[in-house]
Amino acid sequence: MARKSKFSIATRENRIIHLLSQTDHKTSAQWALDCVERIFFYLKNLEYEENRPQIALDTLKEWIKTGNFSMAVIRKAALDSHAAARKIDTDNETKSVARACGQAVATAHVKTHAIGAASYSLQAIHRANYNLDPEIAVQKERDWQYNHLLELQTRLNTN
């Protein structure tokens, strides 16, 4: 029996970190949101009935759209999404998605939370593909994350 591989959210890719350091706050938040929305279907596929991760994403969308910031609202949405993740007994993709949502909304407060959203998104992909070749799936998504951030940044610089 093959041993289940582990995925560490502490793993960082320098090209993404470097590009993110040059990206403005709202673009970083949009990138975090886009990363999470790509894997959000894992919640729906498992008939996950918790709505706090969705509320976190909706809160982030509102901040991106309006720029209105309430630390109490952002903090509550982030902590609630992480609380939803803690309710999940097993380390599976659902737990990773809930964590990714919490990190994404926290980007409204501090833009570097965007990397946490992206990392938990990668962890969700790794966990969902453990019977296949998770490293290939994760690398494809990591490449998408980099290219998408580059595209968002380029779009910003040309406007």
Describe the structure in your own words.
The protein is an all-alpha fold and 159 residues long. It has one domain (14-158). The chain is built from 8 helices and no strands. It has helices at 14-21, 25-37, 41-45, 52-66, 71-86, 93-106, 113-128, 134-158. Helix 5 runs antiparallel to helix 6 and helix 7 runs antiparallel to helix 8 (134-158). The chain is globular. The mean pLDDT is 90.
The ordered string of helix (H) and strand (E) elements is HHHHHHHH
Give the fraction of residues assigned to helices. over 70%
Helix run count: 8
**Beta-sheet strand percentage?**
under 5%
- How many β-strands, per DSSP? 0
Mean pLDDT: 90
Structural class: mainly alpha
| Biggest pleated-sheet summary | none
Number of domains: 1
Radius of gyration: 15 Å
Low-confidence stretches: none
User: In whole angstroms, how far apart are the ends?
Assistant: 53 Å
Oligomerization state: single chain
Large-scale geometry: globular
